[in-house]
């Protein structure tokens, strides 16, 4: 009976999720750093939105010219413009994927900031930011450095968090898996939106030519 009484009155130990949340909840100077990271991401999202809007307008303009050239049986012009439009859509696809991925990062950081979520929420964003640097550097000068700074900031945040506790997790595997998942989700959404937004280019037969259309 005494044993049962001891077990009943003994304080319950927090579960693993409660311990993680307690360990990883932003405190003190960490909270402003997370807020700063979120604001910087929102700035990059806004820049990408402006670039995507310009690309969408350019896409419609070029496509209209292709249709006109096709109606006039101007095969050379239509082929040349089709190649130009293919490049525009390629850039649009890269930026669209980046925009979706950055938005996912921002949502995860907001969740971490608001709810003190676990390491599974935060760690994938670090690797994802580093992976995105090269794809954005070509189209958004300075964006790669911004992402690198944010990745270092988050890395420092997590290092301080782990250093201030005895927590030990298999975060590398989790980070890689979650980063890949985010990229796949973002790519799928971006591809779907691009497919819904842009019409297919008219099919043209190849016409050899040494001159360049201006």
UniProtKB/TrEMBL annotation:
User: Residue spans with biased composition (Polar residues)?
Assistant: 201-214
Where in this protein does the record put region Disordered? 1-24, 188-214
**Superkingdom of the source species:** Archaea
Q: Which Gene3D superfamilies match?
A: 6.10.140.1230
What is the name attached to this protein's record?
Answer: Conserved protein implicated in secretion
Give the organism, scientific name: uncultured marine thaumarchaeote KM3_50_F11
């Amino acid at each position: 009976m005494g044993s049962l009484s001891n077990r009943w009155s003994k304080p319950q130990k927090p579960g693993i999720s409660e311990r993680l949340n307690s360990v990883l909840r932003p405190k003190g100077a960490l909270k402003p750093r997370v807020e700063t990271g979120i604001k910087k991401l929102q700035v990059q999202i806004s820049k990408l939105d402006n670039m995507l809007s310009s690309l969408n307008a350019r896409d419609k303009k070029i496509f209209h010219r292709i249709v006109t050239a096709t109606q006039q049986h101007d095969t050379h012009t239509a082929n040349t413009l089709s190649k130009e439009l293919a490049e525009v859509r390629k850039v649009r696809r890269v930026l669209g994927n980046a925009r979706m991925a950055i938005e996912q990062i921002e949502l995860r950081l907001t969740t971490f900031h608001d709810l003190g979520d676990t390491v599974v929420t935060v760690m994938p964003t670090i690797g994802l930011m580093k992976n995105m640097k090269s794809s954005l550097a070509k189209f958004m000068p300075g964006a790669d450095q911004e992402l690198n700074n944010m990745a270092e900031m988050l890395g420092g945040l997590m290092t301080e968090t782990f250093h201030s506790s005895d927590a030990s997790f298999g975060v590398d595997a989790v980070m890689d898996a979650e980063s890949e998942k985010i990229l796949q989700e973002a790519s799928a959404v971006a591809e779907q939106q691009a497919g819904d937004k842009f019409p297919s280019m008219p099919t043209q037969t190849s016409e050899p030519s040494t001159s360049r259309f201006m």
